[in-house]
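Hi R.,

As promised on Friday, here is the backbone we talked about, encoded as structure tokens. Could you run it through your design pipeline when you get a chance and send me back a sequence?
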């Protein structure tokens, strides 16, 4: 897959992880996956998200890390919604435009938030791939 493109990650049976191609990983979540995009996570590469910022595309980054980590640095314009507060505050996530969920955690953890919001009716979601650390390592802008 070329850099900056969208990746769909298929859910697999519990406990199963498959390696595909050059580093793309298919990670298991809860339950058994079925055919079609309905059981896939919309994972967007950090380079693609940066390009969207550069183009002026309206998007909302949701930082799932702790409030302290958020204060130390986050994506431009990001909103802080710590993972441990998600079930109480999920209505704060916009239903329009692109929403990019991210944290500094295992991919499976951010996918839990993704699937929780999908079950609540959100369809405008994506996950920053591979995460906030990669964003910073590329020297992309970080707000403090």
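Update: got your reply. Pasting your designed sequence below so it's all in one thread:
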């Amino acid at each position: 897959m070329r850099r900056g493109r969208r990746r769909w990650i298929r859910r697999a049976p519990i406990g199963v992880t498959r390696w595909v191609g050059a580093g793309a990983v298919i990670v298991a979540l809860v339950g058994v996956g079925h055919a079609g995009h309905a059981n896939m996570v919309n994972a967007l590469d950090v380079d693609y998200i940066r390009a969207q910022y550069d183009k002026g595309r309206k998007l909302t980054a949701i930082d799932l890390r702790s409030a302290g980590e958020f204060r130390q640095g986050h994506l431009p314009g990001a909103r802080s919604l710590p993972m441990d507060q998600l079930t109480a505050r999920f209505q704060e996530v916009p239903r329009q435009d692109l929403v990019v969920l991210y944290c500094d955690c295992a991919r499976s953890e951010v996918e839990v938030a993704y699937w929780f919001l999908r079950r609540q009716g959100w369809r405008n979601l994506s996950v920053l791939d591979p995460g906030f650390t990669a964003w910073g390592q590329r020297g992309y802008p970080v707000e403090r």
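One thing I noticed while checking it: Residues 10-35 have pLDDT under 50 and may be disordered.

Thanks again,
M.
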